[in-house]
Specification:
Elements (H helix, E strand, L loop, with lengths): L14 E6 L2 E4 L5 H20 L14 H25 L2 H6 L1 H18 L1 H4 L24 H10 L24 H14 L7 H10 L1 H4 L25 H10 L14 H12 L7
Antiparallel strand pairs: 1-2
Helix pairs in contact: 2-11, 4-11, 6-11, 7-8, 7-10
Family: Belongs to the CcoP / FixP family.
Main location: membrane
Pathway: Energy metabolism; oxidative phosphorylation
Length: 284
């Protein structure tokens, strides 16, 4: 409620004229220390605007920027890391793994590099993902799980069309290569029987011998030289039910992985190699 300003009898201070439930607001001046602090803040802000970037398109007299500060910090950190990176660059993954100091550094750096470059497809823990992204945490390898095998795959990638040494050969789309859907169904039965998840099918076994065994092996044991996966276990890249297997046979599958050589420093590739090898399925 507003009323006419008057002097408070108890304090001798003028009121503002505002009252609520009998309580009147005194019109006391702000404390001097508060006013001086307020004025000093305004002066500091004006000085800051002159020397540092505070307005759009104004760099300030000192030319300081957060991006410039970051560049300086990064340069300092890179200088600190340079000796260790040089050692990692010069060593083989096997030697890195055998050296406790290098191994600890490689695992820490490899985990970060994996999160930045690999986890989007292979999962944060290397567990893989449906749709042709293999697990890196088991011992089922398409191209081998030794240090050199892993490093070669990281360097050159798979079927990427950009690196002449990329891994992978193309699997035929058998529906276009002469088989009909009835034959593909028989063939899928046999493939599933290799992993003990489907019925025996003699016609499918004959088709497998004629069309698939050259790459996948007579018993579906796979062939790492060409990246042909094992078919006699229960690890499937694109699904292990019959429709999924038929889809793979009829239309083929062709996963792609980029070549990281040229994108990543050689030291980072070695760190990634050691990290992936350590995920759980690495081989000697």
């Amino acid at each position: 409620m507003a009323r006419k300003p008057e002097t408070d009898a108890a304090t001798g201070v003028a009121t503002t004229g505002h009252e609520w439930d009998g309580i009147r607001e005194l019109d006391n001046p702000m404390p001097s220390w508060w006013l001086y602090t307020f004025y000093a803040s305004i002066a500091f802000a004006l000085i800051w605007m002159v020397f540092y970037p505070a307005l759009p398109f104004v760099r300030g007299l000192l030319g300081n920027t957060a991006r410039g500060d970051l560049a300086a910090v990064m340069a300092t950190e890179q200088a600190k890391a340079a000796p260790m990176l040089a050692r990692l660059r010069a060593a083989t993954p096997e030697a890195i793994s055998a050296d406790p100091e290098l191994r600890a550094y490689a695992l820490a750096g490899g985990r970060i590099a994996f999160a930045n470059s690999c986890a989007g497809c292979h999962g944060a823990g290397g567990q893989g993902a449906p749709g042709g992204f293999p697990s890196l945490a088991d011992d089922d390898w398409l191209y081998g799980g030794s240090f050199e095998d892993i490093r070669t795959t990281i360097r050159h990638g798979v079927r990427n069309g950009e690196d002449a040494e990329a891994r992978g050969t193309a699997m035929p789309a058998f529906l276009q290569a002469g088989l009909n859907m009835a034959q593909i169904s028989d063939l899928a039965d046999h493939v599933l029987s290799l992993a003990s998840t489907g019925p025996a099918n003699p016609a499918g076994a004959a088709l497998f011998t004629d069309n698939c065994a050259a790459c996948h092996g007579d018993r579906g044991e796979g062939n790492r030289a060409v990246g042909a996966p094992r078919l006699n276990d229960r690890i499937w890249l694109y699904g292990g039910d019959k429709p999924s297997v038929m889809r793979s046979i009829a239309y083929s599958r062709a996963g792609v992985m980029p070549a990281w050589e040229g994108r990543l420093d050689a030291a980072v590739i070695n760190m990634l190699t050691v990290y992936v090898h350590a995920l759980g399925g690495g081989e000697q």
